[in-house]
Amino acid sequence: MKKVFFLLFLSLFIFSGCDNMGDYTFKVKNSTQETITLKFEYDSRPYQTENKKEVTLLPAEEKVIRVIEAPLNSPAHDCLTEHGIGFFEELVFDTYVNDEKLEKQLWQAENWTYRHISKWSAEYKMTITNEMIEK
Hints:
Structural class: alpha+beta
Low-confidence stretches: 9-19
Strand content: 35-45%
Mean pLDDT: 82
Helix content: 10-25%
Radius of gyration: 19 Å
Number of helices: 3
Shape: elongated
């Protein structure tokens, strides 16, 4: 009987520690000669400490701007195109070019390219071009 309780306790301990989350990594490349700052509208989820409220991209610089955890199998699909921004509300940002606010909303789904990495991981990438920041 002690063995049964020990095995039950051990299995509960092992399985409760499993991470059933995948992640989406969002990268932005600044292909312009301008300094671009992204100021996020929503705070990131508390356990995602690597996500900053503001990200500055120097000319020709590329950075990870967000890592968003999602249910396990979600990264195997292009959820941004399928479900829209509702799935990624912490991705909404205002864009500043040389400290001047751009009226265009660059975070829209059509500006991102999706890349499936694994069942648990996917990447979205945006390259900001001169055409995108023209007024």
